[in-house]
């Protein structure tokens, strides 16, 4: 039985392979802030290590209001697919924002709020109905 001498080149390749295998696991996973249905962005600052399949940090905001009364809910998550959207319907609005760097979904400020023109239109319609109940 003969023993082959160790090759320094083979040892270097083995070391590089081992380091690559260790580092490509969870070491490079995206980090996002996560929360579900919170009334304040302050409650949405929990940093989470996403799975390897997740490539986006998503922030969803649903808000609504009439005059000085308003409410909003914020949700943040790790996602493998994310489509940015924005929708206003009368006094309710929703938005989804997407980003792809660590902890990039810090703020819920990208949320949209119902436009003042729409609120004024609704208030005007309401006042018209009160003045003319026959309509």
Automatic annotation (TrEMBL):
Cell compartments where the protein resides: Cell membrane
GO cellular component, one term: plasma membrane
Range of residues in the leader sequence: 1-29
Protein keywords: Cell membrane, Glycoprotein, Membrane, Signal, Transmembrane, Transmembrane helix
Source lineage: Eukaryota, Metazoa, Chordata, Craniata, Vertebrata
Location of the UPAR/Ly6 domain: 30-119
PANTHER family in alphabetical order: LYMPHOCYTE ANTIGEN 6E, UPAR/LY6 DOMAIN-CONTAINING PROTEIN
Name by which UniProt lists this protein: UPAR/Ly6 domain-containing protein
PROSITE patterns, sorted: LY6_UPAR
Source organism (scientific name): Pelobates cultripes (Western spadefoot toad)
Keyword field contains Endoplasmic reticulum: no
Superkingdom assignment: Eukaryota
Pfam annotation, one family: Toxin_TOLIP
Transmembrane segments: 114-130
InterPro entries per UniProt: CD59_antigen_CS (IPR018363), Ly-6/neurotoxin-like_GPI-ap (IPR051110), LY6_UPA_recep-like (IPR016054), Snake_toxin-like_sf (IPR045860), Toxin/TOLIP (IPR035076)
Entry annotated with the keyword RNA-binding: no
């Amino acid at each position: 039985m003969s023993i082959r001498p160790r090759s320094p080149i083979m040892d270097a390749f083995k070391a590089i392979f081992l380091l690559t295998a260790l580092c490509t696991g969870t070491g490079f996973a995206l980090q996002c802030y996560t929360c579900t249905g919170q009334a304040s962005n302050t409650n949405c600052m929990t940093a989470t290590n996403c799975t390897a399949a997740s490539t986006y940090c998503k922030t969803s905001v649903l808000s609504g209001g009439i005059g000085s009364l308003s409410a909003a809910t914020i949700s943040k998550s790790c996602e493998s697919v994310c489509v940015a959207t924005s929708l206003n319907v009368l006094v309710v609005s929703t938005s989804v924002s997407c980003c792809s760097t660590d902890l990039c979904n810090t703020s819920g400020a990208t949320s949209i709020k119902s436009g003042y023109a729409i609120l004024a239109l609704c208030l005007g319609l309401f006042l018209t109905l009160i003045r003319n109940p026959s309509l």
